[in-house]
UniProtKB/TrEMBL annotation:
Region (Disordered): 274-301
PANTHER family for this protein: CERAMIDE KINASE, SPHINGOSINE KINASE
Source organism of the structure: Astatotilapia calliptera (Eastern happy)
Name under which the protein is recorded: DAGKc domain-containing protein
Domain of life according to the entry: Eukaryota
Gene: CERK
GO molecular function, one term: ceramide kinase activity
Cellular component GO terms, alphabetical: membrane
Length: 424
């Protein structure tokens, strides 16, 4: 896969040109290599270069101009250095023009994309950071596209307009789950090479609403109970860096909370497989067939009431280096469905066994307290145990508080402000 010719140089009596190309190495990693062609005829050598450049210019999927956002504080705060040392030289070699914005605050990239950015100038947007940074860029781009087309995001059934720009991810965060699940590795050089050769991978995007109010989009994990609690706790210890997730994980596991509520879901069409069919996602294209509106009859909805330690909706495998097969190993990237995993209340030991299976080859769904469904839409309503104080018993019951905490949803690493949600 040629990137471009680099240089023609005359040495003694012969001419040589070297070409850069992408080489696949082990573990999904890509590297840039060079091959040198020698020739004693300068005119012929120049012809090679010209023909190669002509062929390359025909490849319209390769970006020529990119808008880059760098989060200097993501992960181990190496975003800027990673970009300057590993990524910018590759973009330069490929002849890509870049506008680089180092973010100065949270939501800087999102706000810039929503309002100021002149998107006509670019072939794509690149985020250097973690999943939170990717989510910012995604929200900025999707919101801008809907605003430009007059689509009201607050309408849960609104037909969203697809974004014309692609998003590239240079991993420089704490977990980088979205990069790992789409590229197969968290390696900035590999990601930069995927971007310059114009690789693309469609992804499902879920919209999350509370009544008729839009909350957020999700591309990886919507997690309630265990993962919501881990995120809430880890946010309080951001100063710890990536280690905050380990600490929060241990604390949340030890507190062993469960939450009561009702999950209602619309199952996926029969032809899209199921979360345990062991069919690896090989998707690189969303066909119109997959996007067709399916059955939406209220009789097709299933309802499950219970006490749950965790409710997870995985739009992709959610694989990361710690859990190489992810929360739902066979979730597809772009099939219009999510895998809904319900972990009912169980003993601490059983829950530990379930968690442990995310790190080995055993089937984490093979427990009596776990069920998993491939779904097109779902809703969650928490059970609200209303507290009525004794003095109020003479009065009609009023909502004075809740006897149990309601927990919170983690939506791609952000806490949602509501617990009762509708997801599509
Ligand atoms: N300049 C900035 N100052 C403070 N916060 C920022 C800045 N730029 C971006 N952010 C916010 O930082 C949050 C976390 O960033 P990011 O996702 O890059 O790193 P991370 O949280 O360490 O990694 P991961 O999300 O993979 O766990 C994002 O939600 C983003 O909104």
């Amino acid at each position: 896969c040629l990137i471009r010719w680099s240089m023609g140089m005359i040495k003694a009596s012969f001419v040589s040109d070297f070409f850069s190309y992408v080489r696949r190495t082990q573990q999904h990693q890509w590297r840039c290599s060079e091959v040198t062609f020698h020739c004693d005829n300068q005119a012929l050598c120049e012809e090679w270069v010209q023909v190669t450049n002509e062929q390359l210019s025909l490849l319209t999927n390769r970006p020529k101009s990119l808008l880059v956002y760098i989060n200097p504080f993501g992960g181990k705060r190496r975003g800027k250095r990673i970009y300057e040392q590993k990524v910018a030289p590759i973009f330069r070699l490929a002849g890509i023009a870049t506008t680089v914005i180092v973010t100065e605050r949270a939501n800087h990239a999102e706000d810039h994309l929503k309002t100021e950015a002149n998107l006509d100038k670019y072939d794509g947007v690149v985020c250097v950071g973690g999943d939170g940074m990717f989510s910012e860029v995604l929200h900025g781009l999707v919101a801008r596209t809907q605003n430009d087309h007059g689509v009201d995001q607050n309408q849960p059934d609104a037909e969203l307009v697809p974004c014309s720009l692609r998003i590239g991810i240079i991993p420089a965060g704490s977990t980088d789950c979205i990069c790992f699940a789409t590229v197969g590795t968290n390696d900035p050089v590999t990601s930069a090479l995927h971007i310059v050769v114009g690789d693309s991978q469609p992804m499902d995007v879920c919209s999350v609403h509370h009544n008729d109010v839009f909350l957020r989009y999700s591309v990886s994990l919507l997690g309630y109970g265990f993962y919501g609690d881990v995120l809430s706790d880890s946010e309080r210890n951001r100063w710890l860096g990536p280690a905050r997730y380990d600490l929060a994980g241990v604390k949340t596991f030890l507190s062993h909370n469960y939450y009561e509520g009702t999950v209602t879901f619309l199952p996926a069409e029969d032809d899209v497989g199921n979360p345990r069919d062991k069919l690896q996602c090989r998707s690189s294209d969303v066909s119109e067939e997959k996007e067709k509106p399916g059955k939406d009859d209220s009789s097709d909805w299933n309802e499950i009431h219970g006490k749950f330690i965790a409710i997870n909706a995985a739009n992709m495998s959610c694989a990361c280096p710690r859990s190489p097969k992810g929360l739902s190993p066979f979730a597809h990237l772009a099939d219009g469905n999510a895998d809904l995993i319900l972990v009912r209340n169980c003993s601490r030991l059983d829950f530990f066994k379930h968690l442990l299976r995310h790190t080995n080859k055993d089937d984490q769904f093979d427990h009596p307290f776990v069920e998993v469904h491939r779904v097109r839409k779902f809703r969650f309503e928490p059970e609200r145990h209303i507290l009525v104080s004794l003095e109020d018993l003479s009065e009609p019951a009023t909502k004075t508080g809740y006897s149990t905490p309601l927990g919170s949803w983690s939506c791609d690493g952000e806490i949602l402000p509501e617990v009762a949600i509708q997801v599509r």
